[in-house]
Amino acid sequence: MKQLRVLVVEDEMTIALLLEDMLDNLGHKVVALALRFGQAVKLATDAQIGVAILDVNLNGQISFPVAELLEARGIPFVFATGYGSAGVDTSYRGRGMVIKKPFDFKDLRGAIERVAAEARPVA
């Protein structure tokens, strides 16, 4: 699989660092990390990325508007939530991929492989 430039949107620093380590082991590069909603919006609008991993709940704010920004740019994404598919609003089901927290390396690899086919090359 080609190396992807990844945006990680996660409000728990330990999970964000774990994700970064897992993505690195998969051969991908985390180029941006957003711990808060405002950061996520800015990065989803401007960052040169190929794929994003979005925590659904960012310290009480839902990340669906971030997903919409990514979708408008043609950037695929993975929702990460402790509730699995049930944690994703019905209007977002079928858009992006969903992995349930806590997830392991195999879960993340499978989700990234599925959305990688949609990822566009980023210089």
Report on the structure:
The protein has one domain: Response regulator (Rossmann fold). The protein is 36% helix and 24% strand. It has helices at residues 13-25, 37-46, 64-72, 105-116, and strands spanning 5-9, 29-34, 51-55, 57-58, 61-62, 77-81, 97-100. Helix 2 runs parallel beside helix 3 (64-72). It is globular.
Structure summary:
The protein has about 120 residues and is α/β, with parallel strands linked by helices. It contains four helices and seven strands.
For the largest sheet, list the strands in their spatial order: 2-1-3-6-7
Largest sheet: 5 strands, parallel
Task: Flag low-confidence runs.
Answer: none
Total domains: 1
CATH superfamily, by name, is Response regulator
Which outline best applies? globular
Q: Work out the number of β strands.
A: 7
* CATH architecture descriptor: 3-Layer(aba) Sandwich
SS strand fraction: 15-25%
CATH topology-level fold name: Rossmann fold
Q: Mind sketching the topology for me?
A:
Elements: E1 5-9, H1 13-25, E2 29-34, H2 37-46, E3 51-55, E4 57-58, E5 61-62, H3 64-72, E6 77-81, E7 97-100, H4 105-116
Parallel strand pairs: 1-2, 1-3, 3-6, 6-7
Antiparallel strand pairs: 4-5
